[in-house]
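Appendix B. Chain record.
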Amino acid sequence: MQTVANRIIELTPNGIIDKRMTYDEYLVDERVKEMREKFYEGVVV
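Structure tokens predicted for this chain:
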């Protein structure tokens, strides 16, 4: 996926995260982590 993906679109229960970056960058980006916490807040799995 690293060599193919340059845009990540994650559909969450409370919104969409759309970033132009590699998958590895997406996994470690602090802003993305904050957004994921916000968008998954209160979701029971």
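Further analysis of this model is presented in Appendix C.
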